[in-house]
């Protein structure tokens, strides 16, 4: 019998801030005014949304998938940390690294912000662990052209090893059919008009 799916948010746990660690791939950035607004919101309303983490058994820590800035508010504002008793609400997901990276991107894209340079690094990292453009497209909700542009930012040739390119770089003499000939001289355009 198939087990009924239960969203992680129904199992929110309180985790000591010392056991929570940021991931090293989050491309989401917030400007100082937005951080201050988030602080004001948490100060006035409390934590209304848990942060999303993966539990790393080896390190006995919770690695953030989504909610880094909510975490930073507790780290940076002693009044929040004291009021909350140093505990953050955490919703735990259990996914491999590529799945966690995809979850982070989906959360960020749903909010409409992510850093392009960091995003291109994630594309590189996913590629390095063997994820195809099709996998990235499906799991990160990206069009193929967007993936290509992000690959171009990193400038790594390995990211393009499976891409077929046009032949515009080849000399014209190589592209002309054997039966055709190129004129020996081309006339200069008349610029007197």
Give an account of the 3D structure:
With 193 residues, this protein is of the alpha/beta class. Helices cover 41% and strands 13% of the residues. A 5-stranded mixed beta sheet has the order 1-5-3-4-2. The longest helix is centred in the middle third of the chain and has 15 residues, at 97-111. The protein is globular and about 75 Å long. The protein starts with 12 loop residues before the first strand and ends in an 18-residue tail after the last helix.
The biggest sheet, with number of strands, parallel, antiparallel or mixed sense and barrel status, is: 5 strands, mixed
CA(first)-CA(last) distance:
84 Å
CA-based gyration radius: 25 Å
Shape: globular
Strands of the largest sheet, in order across it?
1-5-3-4-2
User: Mean pLDDT, as a whole number?
Assistant: 77
| Poorly predicted spans | 185-193
The fraction of residues in strands falls at 5-15%
Q: Provide the succession of SSEs.
A: EEHEEHHEHHHHH
Range of helix content: 40-55%
Kindly state the number of beta strands.
5
Structural class: alpha/beta
